[in-house]
Design goal:
Blueprint: H1 22-36, H2 52-62, E1 74-79, H3 82-103, H4 106-112, H5 123-126, E2 129-136, E3 138-140, E4 146-148, H6 152-169, E5 173-177, H7 184-189, E6 195-204, H8 222-225
Antiparallel strand pairs: 1-2, 2-6, 3-4, 5-6
Helix pairs in contact: 2-6
Length: about 230
């Protein structure tokens, strides 16, 4: 994190060393894959309550992500208030109607057809929590001095990935939602001008009749996403 003034480099012994055999590493890697492949993006949520502590602990995990110069240029706003969720839904659906009416362009709309999305977003009010992810384009000290952040999109993207994984491990489902424009979220969430809203995570338990589009299970095989250059 940013520290005003001099902060000297001080190496510390690696605090959490993990020693595993090659076989144990392979088994662990496969176990992670087996767990993460059961993560599904859903749009059908239950209104079953989720304890705030669960959300807080998952965000705490997101906060451990690596970032440019360790500035941690992110902020998360967890919204469980029904009135705020309703305002977000109304604003999002107003933009989505324009999007699906042709604003997105024919190619994009065709690409979305197998996903089954539309302008209506009931999950924004049904799910117990919305987490708005903000990227801090620059930082501001407590006395109002501005400082530069580095690799902001990359850092926030990694932290969001940590958050999605943590939510899954906690037994929850989520949906990544990116209404455009999202500027209204600054005012709604009382966040400063230098923070840019980049995503809403809809979080909760899946509904009893939740479905996923068949195409969502079509993942690229390993040979299409991995190239190995052996020495």
């Amino acid at each position: 994190m940013f520290h005003k003034g001099e902060l000297a480099y001080e190496p510390l012994p690696l605090p959490d060393r993990r020693e595993m055999t090659d076989a144990e590493m392979v088994a662990a890697a496969r176990a992670v894959h087996e767990d993460m492949r059961t993560r599904h993006t859903v749009r059908d949520f239950s209104d079953r309550a989720v304890p705030e502590e669960v959300i807080a602990e998952c965000v705490r995990t997101a906060g451990t992500a690596p970032s440019g110069a360790n500035h941690q240029p992110w902020h998360f706003v967890a919204i469980g208030d029904d009135a705020m969720k309703a305002r977000i839904r109304a604003a999002a659906e107003a933009e989505e109607e324009k999007f699906y009416a042709g604003g997105a362009g024919a190619e994009w709309l065709r690409a979305l057809e197998p996903i089954g999305t539309g302008a209506e977003k009931p999950h924004l009010t049904t799910a117990p929590w919305l987490i708005v992810v903000f990227a801090q384009r620059y930082g501001v000290t407590k006395d109002g001095e501005r400082y530069k952040n580095y690799y902001v999109p990359e850092s926030v993207g990694i932290a969001t990935g940590f958050l999605i994984a943590a939510l899954h491990r906690a037994g929850l489902s989520c949906l990544t939602h990116t209404p455009n424009p999202m500027k209204f979220l600054n005012e709604l969430c009382d966040r400063p001008e230098h923070e840019k809203p980049v995503m809403i995570l809809v979080v909760g338990h899946p509904a009893e009749d939740a479905t996923v589009p068949r195409v969502a299970k079509m993942k690229k095989p390993l040979e299409e996403i991995l190239t190995v250059r052996r020495g």
